[in-house]
Every structure is written in structure tokens, then in C-alpha cells.
Amino acid sequence: MTTHASRSLVPPGRTRTVPPALHEFAYWLHRYRRTWRGTVVLNVANPLLFLTGIGAGLGTLVNHNNSAALGGLSYLAFLTPGLLAGSAMQTAYIDSAHPVHQSVQAKGHYWAASATPMSPVDIYYGHLLFNVFKVTLSATAFTAVAAAFGAVDALRAPLVVVATLLVGAAFAAPSAAWAVTAKRQPTVLAVLRFGVMPMFMFSGTFFPLTQLPGWLQPVVQATPLWHGVELCRTAALGTGTAAGTALHVGYLAVLAVVGLLLGRRTYQRHLHS
To answer: What is the C-alpha separation between 161 and 158, in angstroms, rounded?
Structure first.
């Protein structure tokens, strides 16, 4: 007769163990269950206001007067993927940099977590996993509403969510890796104001790159958000090429991997468990 022990996937004498990083993820998820309503405006409602006000309102004027600059697209179809990428960047930075900086301060959460069997790398991975989870939630909700508006093809919506997830990971990993080293809160805010927000405004989110001066276009094309916007837009419109998609995916994937490697070092250096 087959016994219960022989049917178990766990060898005799050993017990199932949960990856330590999932404990950190569970902590942030527990906090989010108490505070998720306060993040809806930033993660969902704010992009939807842009979608409705600018896309449907201002978009009517753009479609009437300058549709040729958009390659025959409606402004709503042009704008929506850019907003998705920009929103993913903002969510990834804000939910990575600020909580990480607060958690590493005196009496912050990271020091309590460091007193457990979790290593600094486990803490980094768990918190990063939660940040990517939040980007996925907001991207899924926004894409679903955009599909209902007709701004995104429902059949292409899953590809758009995956592209947005990659954008979020590309920003969340290096943001957390850097924020754990930041000494002052104003520094974290300065990066948001003078780094994140200008990228959001000038990386092809609201208007084609060709509208910028020629000397500025290569600078914008070197930014991660431009690659994210292009990836999301071509995924939404079905206009991507193999070479272009590989370039955008490769750029964002390398940025995420570099962030992971840097995060392992910075967390290990600043959190002594």
C-alpha cells in the first residue's frame, strides 16, 4: 500500500520551506491590504483622468488639426500606451525609492527584518517582488479600462501588460538599489522632480519624438522610458518589428538585471544582519 509519506513530494526527514524573500513580500502585502485605497488615485485614477481629459478631450483637437504627425492614429490610441509606460515608471520609482529610504532609517522596518533569518538580499528581493506586483496590478486595471474605452485592442492587452511589467521592473530594481544608500529624503524627492518627471513629459508619452529639436532626440532615445513607451506602443498597435522589439526588451532587461546586481551589493553593504 502506498503510504502518505511516499506520496509526499518532500523527502523523509525534510520539511517544506518557504523562500525567505516571500516573507518580506508577505509583510509588504499585509501593509498594502490596509492602505491600498490611498494608492488608487496615483496608480489608476490619475492615468484614467489623463486618458479621459487629454485623450478624449484634447485629442479631438489634435485629431482635427494635426493627425498626420501621429501617423494616422487617433490621439487616444497614441497616448494610452505612453501613459501606461509612464505610470509604470512613476509607480516603480515612488513605491521603491520612498519606502526603501524610510525602511533603512533608524527604527525602520529593514532593521527588524534583518534580525530574522532573512539576509539583506532576501529583503531586497522580497520588497522588489512586491513593487513589481503593484505595477502589475495597476497596469492590468488601467489596460482593462483602456480596452473598454477602445484605446487598446483587447486581444493585444495581455502583451501590453507584459511590456508594462518589464518597464516597471527596469525602474524598480535600480531605484531600490540606489535608495537604500540615500542619506536624505530631499535627495529622493529631487530625483523624482528632476529625473522621473522630465522623462515622463519628454519621452514620447504625449507627443512624437519628431516634434523635439533634432539635437535632443538622441538624448531622449537613450532614456529607459523612451524604450518603454516604444515597447508598449508597438505592443498595443501591433507595429513592432523583431529588431525594434529586441532592442527595447534588451535595453529594459539589462537595466533590470544591472539593478538586481547593484541591489545585492548595496543591501548587503548597508544592512548588516
So the answer is: 5
Amino acid at 131: N
Q: Which helix (H) or strand (E) holds 84?
A: helix 75-103
Q: Are 133 and 127 in contact (CB under 8 A)?
A: no
* Residue 212 in grid coordinates: 523635439
Cα distance between the two ends of the chain: 48
- Is residue 141 within 8 A of residue 44, CB to CB? The reply is yes
Per residue in 32-84, pLDDT tens? 888 887 777 766 677 677 777 776 677 666 666 665 556 677 888 888 899 89
Between CA 139 and CA 135 the distance in angstroms is: 6
Write out pLDDT tens, residues 182-213. 988 899 999 999 999 999 999 998 888 888 89
Residue 83 in contact with residue 152, Cβ under 8 Å?
A: no
Q: Which cell is 152 given?
A: 487598446
